[in-house]
Write a structure and sequence with these properties.
Blueprint lengths: L4 H19 L3 H7 L4 H10 L17 H11 L4 H11 L4 H6 L2 H13 L4 E4 L15 E5 L2 E12 L6 E7 L10 E7 L5 E3 L13 E12 L3 E2 L5 H37 L1 E2 L2 E2 L4 H29 L5 H26 L1 H4 L5 H7 L10 H17 L4
Parallel strand pairs: 1-4
Antiparallel strand pairs: 2-3, 3-7, 4-5, 5-8, 6-7, 9-10
Helix pairs in contact: 1-4, 4-8, 4-9, 8-9, 8-10, 9-10, 10-12, 10-13
The chain binds coenzyme a persulfide (COS).
Amino acid sequence: MAFDAEIRAALIEQVRRFVTEKCIPIEAEVGDNDAVPQSIVDEMKNLGLFGIAVPEEYGGLALDMETECLVAFELGHTSPAFRSVAGTNIGIGSQALVLFGTDAQKSKWLPGIASGDLIASFALTEPEAGSDAGSLTTKAIRDGDHYVLNGTKRYITNANKADLFTVMARTDPSTPGAKGVSAFIVERNTPGVSVGQPEKKMGQQGAHICDVIFEDARVPVENRLAGEGEGFKVAMSVLDKGRLHISAVATGVSERLIKEMVNYSLERKQFGKPIMEHQMIQAMIADSQAETYAARCMILDAARRRDAGEDVTMLASCTKLFATEACGRVADRAVQVFGGAGYVTDYGIERFYRDVRIFRLYEGTTQIQQIIIARELARAAKAGKL
Ligand code: COS
């Protein structure tokens, strides 16, 4: 069911005002301090942002995917570190519970996730299992009414603030690949769970990624999501949705950078006139606008199809590939249009240039999206559905 149009417009307007009035003015400060102020986190809680993808009966706003993407476009209009504060609760940290949790599991954790009082993270990647997620080696061995977890997860967003993790671990070590994997909710305060120091990274200062280490961590059987051996499918379903969301965030950043380019080009004069009147500048801005518009249309189409119950695995990969690569090109052109100023910290463009680089990597690299698209096409052809 489509979200009520008036409520949607009011929500988008609220988020736009929050981004414009509260986030944009402190982008540099957040970058310098590598931290989003608590007052901003509190406002995000008040706006209900942590719970936009949680069902109403558990305290969330239950936005449909189209509306979630419209919100994500708005959040993309400022430094992506702000979005990241609630990002895992909106997306990969909560959705395994939303999609596969039992009523008891949902009642226990979703209200806290929706309010932002509990931070949820997604723990799939390992030191030796990145793109080849199905090769993960973290073990979860059944021992009575518990599973005993051992292993290390890597680059886990918001791990340093997380209260619970969706963890993919191998319940059947004798079965290699995706089939031996199960998914669990693991609480941070479980004995044997520890979190490493935040990594120093290229961009998105204010958002953090850390290792999560499991050493004989005993997790109750009732924390398992879906059946034994179904954890990889859980992870992939979560990523299908997450990839749409990230595409929308990246496209929001592209829109912001186009605005920056246009405003700067109207002010900046060279060869006796604003650089906006030079055709080579126009070309860079026009290409950025055309690509960003295309990304926006793709994302909304894929989101509507997901809302209508279609399988959007391939479309989510198409949007992730196109929107994040386009964003990379837009950020590169923004530096070019700003010239020397694009390279200087004060203007903030170089910060966006660094921030957007991760979009092409996380939740599946561009190359993984290409693999998924090609596989889905081949599968459809073999089934006579192409
Ligand atoms: N939804 C539901 N189930 C899915 C699925 C999806 N989108 N994609 C795959 N599956 C299922 C498959 O149907 C298969 O089950 P069956 O054997 O019962 O048919 C199982 O999962 C294994 O799938 P597949 O054979 O495609 O697995 P591969 O090991 O070949 O890997 C890729 C698949 C490469 C797509 C996967 O490893 C991937 O997405 N890697 C990137 C991981 C990633 O995004 N990491 C980012 C970090 S998390 S922020």
